[in-house]
């Protein structure tokens, strides 16, 4: 099977998942970075950078596939799978590190599985459910919240702002809202 550029980028995103997890969970002693009187672990900074690169490839592969007319069935399957692997793996890692409550990860991951199930049911009936604007906001807030959690609220801890917790709550609210929105707007897919 020959992979086009968009699918190769998606495969790169999947290959970045274990690398992000490695830097998050292994806790290499690479020293600390001090900024505004707050110290950050270099492992966290590297994990955050790799996660951001992986998140950027999500938009990049879709843009390339659409603009160059490289949309394939394999890409339609692989792209959302890569997104779910990346987000789920990092959320579970953050739970393991004690930076995220398990119930939050369960809500986020459950919503992803539920919407994927809805899409599969709709696809079996010949309907394609495109990503909604709410879902795009959800993705953006998830990326911001996850990066804030990976960085362990760096550099906001010196000014007593729990930016990471505010972003987690925003992520949970829009995740639930967008999930409900998908099911309400696509209830005919379930009824068929």
Automatic annotation (TrEMBL):
MF annotations from Gene Ontology: CDP-diacylglycerol-glycerol-3-phosphate 3-phosphatidyltransferase activity
Pfam families per the UniProt record, alphabetical: CDP-OH_P_transf (PF01066)
Residue intervals passing through the bilayer: 12-30, 42-64, 141-159, 165-184
NCBIfam families to which the protein is assigned, alphabetical: pgsA (TIGR00560)
Function field: This protein catalyzes the committed step to the synthesis of the acidic phospholipids.
Entry keyword Protein transport: no
InterPro entries referenced in this protein's UniProt entry, alphabetically: CDP-alcohol_PTase-I, CDP-OH_P_trans, CDP-OH_PTrfase_TM_dom, CDP_ALCOHOL_P_TRANSF_CS, Phosphatidylglycerol_P_synth
Lineage: Bacteria, Bacillati, Bacillota, Bacilli, Bacillales
Originating gene: pgsA
Membrane topology: Multi-pass membrane protein
Organism (species): Tumebacillus algifaecis
Protein name, entry field: CDP-diacylglycerol--glycerol-3-phosphate 3-phosphatidyltransferase
Signal peptide range: none
